[in-house]
Design brief:
Elements lengths: L9 H12 L6 H13 L3 H6 L7 H15 L4 H5 L1 E4 L2 E4 L12 H9 L8 E5 L5 H9 L4 E6 L2 H13 L5 E5 L13 E6 L13 H6 L13 H9 L4 E10 L5 H10 L2 E8 L5 E8 L13
Parallel strand pairs: 3-4, 3-6, 4-5, 6-7
Antiparallel strand pairs: 1-2, 7-9, 8-9
Length: 299
């Protein structure tokens, strides 16, 4: 394996790291620059402007250790400890999924159903790092947001993100889906969620995602629809009449999710495509007078 000479420059170490990562990454140069940025505190613009800048010995050694981790497939976001989402910086760790661009579509759709001039209530189920809840909070100062997760580690991380982003309109609760609301009669204008939706034997799940990201946040059961079914079935007890349910799901699941919503009494059911053209978010509006209340809370 190539080693970094302590006397090397920015250009030298980036060239070596790019070669080391080329077999394991789809973007080896970008990965190398992001890791060097993390170690040195310099920006990528500074790298390009001064490629002959010398790299201190300790920084070169630390950089090589991070490159080795990346060579083994560890995600850049976990190595650096943060990920950008909705132009906000979120702390992340292996306790939570890494926020992804397609999840911004959940934020976009939820914002469409939240009037910025009035106090509205939103429930974020399976909040993880808090990405959905805190992105919406940054856009809707009058919204009152409740974010739930079953993982204490995820909630601790989401709470830190809220404090750093100075989001005072988000309340975090511990529990499984609606279970944290058993004694709460609040009804919400919007329920949003990026739940686990990958089937146990899904061949499309990248082995490195399966290896590094939390299984409970990825795989709910054999079909991949188990969590979505729970969320849909319990929505009538927690949505206001006229409220919206906004769900992220797998790129092959839109028809199944639309069917679940329609059979549960939702109207205006529709799916929305991500930037790659895949239907990744489905939403529906619930008119409570159209359906009988559920016999029990499935959570």
């Amino acid at each position: 394996m190539p080693a970094f000479d302590p006397a090397q420059t920015v250009s030298d170490v980036l060239h070596t790291a790019t070669a080391m990562l080329s077999r394991n990454s789809d973007s080896p140069r970008l990965d190398a620059e992001l890791l060097l940025q993390h170690v040195t505190g310099l920006s990528r613009t500074q790298f390009h402007a001064a490629p002959e800048r010398p790299i201190p010995t300790q920084a070169a050694w630390s950089f090589q250790q991070l490159v080795k981790r990346r060579m083994h497939g560890e995600p850049i976001a976990y190595i650096r400890g943060h990920q950008e989402f909705w132009s906000l910086l979120f702390e992340v760790s292996p306790a939570v999924l890494i926020p992804r661009p397609e999840t911004e579509l959940v934020v976009e759709r939820a914002l469409q159903h939240l009037d910025g001039d009035e106090e509205r209530r939103l429930l974020d189920l399976g909040t993880g790092s808090g990405a959905i809840a805190l992105a919406i909070a940054s856009e809707r100062a009058k919204a009152r947001i409740t974010a739930i997760d079953v993982s204490p580690e995820a909630l601790a991380l989401a709470t830190r993100n809220a404090a750093r982003l100075q989001a005072s309109n988000v309340c975090f609760l511990h529990g499984s889906w609606y279970g944290a609301l058993r004694n709460d009669k609040t009804r919400f204008d919007v329920i949003a969620s990026n739940p686990p939706y990958i089937a146990t034997d899904d061949p499309d799940l990248h082995p490195l995602v399966r290896r590094y990201e939390p299984t409970t946040a990825l795989i709910p059961g054999p079909s991949g629809l188990e969590a979505i079914k729970q969320i849909v079935a319990g929505a009538a007890r927690h949505l206001k009449s006229g409220g919206w349910l906004v769900l992220e799901h797998g790129w092959k699941q839109s028809a199944d999710v639309r069917d679940l919503l329609v059979r549960s009494g939702f109207v205006h059911v529709r799916s929305h495509a991500d930037l790659a053209g895949h239907e990744r978010v489905t939403e529906g509006q619930l008119i409570l007078s159209n359906i009988p209340p559920p016999a029990r809370d499935p959570s």
